[in-house]
Amino acid sequence: MQHRLSEHPILPVPQKQDIPFYWNKQLVYAKDGEMISSALIANGISVFGHHHKDGTAQGIFCANGQCAKCTVIANGIPVKSCMTKVLPNMIVSSADGLPSIPKEVPEIEFSDIHELETEVLIIGGGPSGLAAAIQLGSHGIKTLLIDDKHELGGKLVLQTHKFFGSEEDSNAGTRGHEIGKLLAGEVSKLASVEVWINSTALYVFSDKKVGILKDGEYQIVSPKRILNAAGAREKFLRFSGNNLARIYGAGAFQTLVNRDLIRPTERLFIIGGGNVGLIAGYHALQAGIEVVGLAEAMPSCGGYKVHADKLKRLGVPIYTSHSILSANGEETVESVTIVQVDNKFQPVKGTEKSFQCDTILIAVGLDSLSEFTIEAEQAGLPVYAAGDALEIAEASSAMFNGKIAGLLIAKDCGAQVDDIPSEWYQKAEVLKSHPGKIKGYQNHESEEGVFPIIHCLQEIPCNPCTTVCPTNSIHTEDGSLMAVPLYKGSCIGCGKCLLICPGLAITLVDYRQDKEFPSVTLPYEVCNNPVSVGDSLPVVDIDGRDLGSFPVVAVQSNKTKLTQLIKLKIPRNLAKQAASFRIQSAEVSAKLDKAIIPESLADDAMICLCERVKAGEVRKLIRQGITDLNQLKAITRAGMGPCGAKTCEVLIKGLLREEGIPTTDVVPNTKRPVFIEVPLEKFPKVK
Fold first, then answer.
1. At what angle do helices 629-636 and 648-658 cross, to 10 degrees?
2. SS3 call for 156
3. Is 300 helix (H, G, I), strand (E, B) or coil?
4. Most buried one in 79, 139, 204, 224, CB count within 10 A?
5. 242 CB contacts (<8 Å, ≥6 apart)?
6. Which residues contact 585 (CB under 8 A, 6 or more apart)?
7. Rounded to an integer, what distance in angstroms lies between the CA atom of residue 414 and that of residue 323?
8. What is the 3-state secondary structure (H, E, C) of 377-414?
9. Alpha helices of 592-647 — where are they, by DSSP H?
10. Whole-number CA gyration radius for the chain
11. How far apart, in whole angstroms, are the C-alpha atoms of residue 48 and residue 95?
């Protein structure tokens, strides 16, 4: 299997210099600027070591510095491989066996720590942090923006799809990674905004100072105000085999595929049908990865219908009212077993089904990174929050709310800022709205001329098709952003609505040359699965149902939008139903002949991956009456590992709920500085 992408339908594949380094004494190569974890996976290495307690395999999960599964030893120092760049001739090894303690400990002395003051500290350079920084900078407010990655943009960097919302407020119709560059470019022009990348906020201390690790050096910043725009961390799940390697969070998967252009898997199964999971599945197809299926515990996907439809049309089955029962394999994932769940989310015996796959992607929601907000409030510092650190929503919402937060902070700093119109707050609410009602198709009785068929049937905050139409023929039902678009007017067949639609949910039917076999134009973005004139494609309707195979008569590529328009001849009685064509065969998603059901399930799952604590151990203590998270930690060590309970606390609280313990009876975990592990050598100066 070739692990590096040589082409991508949306992203350029730059030629980068090879960097030699050593993995367990073997010479391998990374690309210039690459993280250790990505370089290892690009070399076909997905097991980074084995846990010292039970010997089970370790790999990456979050690729965001939030967990510690990817720890390796680099030049003698334990590091998170997902956050550490490969250096020439770096010696990297697994953490199997603990590093030996040096015989001689050097004398140390504490050095003077660099301190600075700023009016506003923004923690996080994603969509909300950048949008806020633009407003603060435009009003001349001294601002320090920090981000722990090597480039600004946050999750925007990982998004190859076109964004929803409106063109005016959210750059709707523009791809996420392009929006990230646009926002970062605006920030770079602002004289009053200083940017620190490779900089991790460690803690907001009681003396109103913030400890920051900047390029490996400890700094202290004294801000007058803080904006927490740090985003969110991914939730994990309890299931048998959840400690196997090659179980990724969606962010890790998208980091590998869309940032580092690495193909980390051949066969992927997705757990979670929100927008994150649905979009990750689409990104996988664009990287040439087979998506075996997607399971969602709810009766319907929580993400936008157009995202789910897009996967189904391309050949990916979606199993609603299903959840994961087990990941199966020795060290790494070899198959997955899912099961139907009832209305109480309990497994329905006899509905188990297993599928061969080599990777499982977990996309079951996010938890806001609220730590900085809480610590700042306790310290008495004025603090604001925006984006996912405030409330989990789409990036279009994060940008708009970041803009509002930036203006509010500027006003509090004494800048001359007009009152924010009430319409802005109303629009902010709309942009973070959950999907609304699903409507039926617009009735198109006409079979004359040319006109669009709009397959976007759900109320979602999106309207770029209404603004791009040159004849002003597409409108939302009531003129609002959160409404279904409708066609009424005089189409000229330009195809602009097809090119800009983020959901690829518009097709064009043209009866002008042949009424019996009109041409139907379909938008297509998985261009690494090429289509040529003369091909016969398996055309499907909105739900992925077969309509038949029909010939391609034209292929038009748009270099600006990077969306191909595929024109086919389709019989008149099917033309309006045609929504796309399948690219993945049904054989990819075939079930194994017999479901794999582990003997132990409910108590076998790991609840603390750092300390290898199983759910059964914690459940037993809960049933003995222990509801204090600190006491559970003291007895089992769950939450005492290097990730600082970022993953297991949510899982333990879930166990408490299952056991009928009211939230009010749970004693919360005591949070101690720092939020991120830091080698002690970063604080003192070594002689």
1. 110
2. helix
3. coil
4. 204
5. 236, 327, 605, 606, 609
6. 315
7. 52
8. HHHCCCEEECHHHCCCCCHHHHHHHHHHHHHHHHHHCC
9. 615-623, 629-636
10. 26
11. 8
pTM here? 0.94
DSSP letter for each residue of 451-481: EEEE---B--BB-HHHHH-TT--EEETTSSS
CA distance 462 to 501: 9
* Average of per-residue pLDDT values in the chain: 92
Amino acid letter at 224? Answer: K
> What is the full DSSP assignment across 338-349?
EEEB-TTS-B-T
- Structural domains of the chain in order of their starting residue, each with its CATH number: 1-102 (3.10.20.440), 114-232+371-431 (3.50.50.60), 450-589 (no CATH), 606-665 (1.10.10.1100)
pLDDT tens digits for 257-286? 999 999 999 999 999 999 999 999 999 999
Q: Which two tokens stand for residue 11?
A: 């992203």
Residue 687's pLDDT is 46
Query: Which two three-digit tokens encode residue 452?
Result: 């669009």
Residues in the chain: 687
β pairing state of 366-368 and 353-356: unpaired
Q: Higher-confidence residue: 514 or 170?
A: 514
- Evaluate whether 158 touches 176 at the Cβ level (below 8 Å): yes
Residue 646: predicted pLDDT = 86
Rounded to whole angstroms, the Cα distance separating 193 from 136 reads: 8
Amino acid of residue 80: K
Strands 143-146 and 57-58: unpaired
What's the rounded Cα separation, in Å, for the pair 215 and 196? 9
Beta bridge partners of residue 558, listed in sequence order: 563
Q: Is the pLDDT of residue 110 over 80?
A: no
Closest residue by Cα to residue 39 from 96, 97, 90, 99: 90
Cβ-proximal residues to 222 (8 Å cutoff; 6+ apart), any chain: 115, 116, 117, 118, 208, 209, 210
What residues pair up with 556 in beta bridges, in sequence order? Answer: 565
Is the confidence at residue 65, as pLDDT, over 70?
yes
Q: What is the pLDDT of residues 624-654, one digit of tens each?
A: 999 999 999 999 999 888 888 888 899 999 9
Helix, strand, coil shares of the chain, percent, nearest 5, are 25, 30, 45
DSSP 3-state of 641: coil
Q: How far apart are CA 6 and CA 13, in angstroms?
A: 7
Q: What is the DSSP string of 72-108?
A: EEETTEEEEGGG-B--TTEEEE--SSPPPPPSSPPPE
When pLDDT is averaged across residues 145-154 and rounded to a whole number, the result is 94
CA 613 – CA 609 distance, rounded (Å): 7
Region 484-505: mean pLDDT is: 94
Please state the φ and ψ torsions of residue 195, each to the nearest 5 degrees: -115, 130
Q: The tokens of 223 are what?
A: 């801000």
Residue 88's contacts (CB-CB under 8 Å, 6 or more residues apart) are: 19, 20, 21
> Taking 90 as the threshold, does the pLDDT of residue 60 lie above it?
yes
Alpha carbon dihedral 376, 381, 384, 387, in 10-degree steps, equals -30
What phi, psi does 670 have (nearest 5°)?
-80, 120
What does the alpha-carbon distance between residue 402 and residue 621 come to, in Å, rounded to a whole number?
Answer: 43
Residue found by looking up tokens 């010939």 in the block: 551
Q: How far apart are CA 136 and CA 142, in angstroms?
A: 8
Residue type, 448: E
- The yes-or-no verdict on residue 68 having pLDDT over 90 is no
Indicate the SS3 state at residue 329.
coil
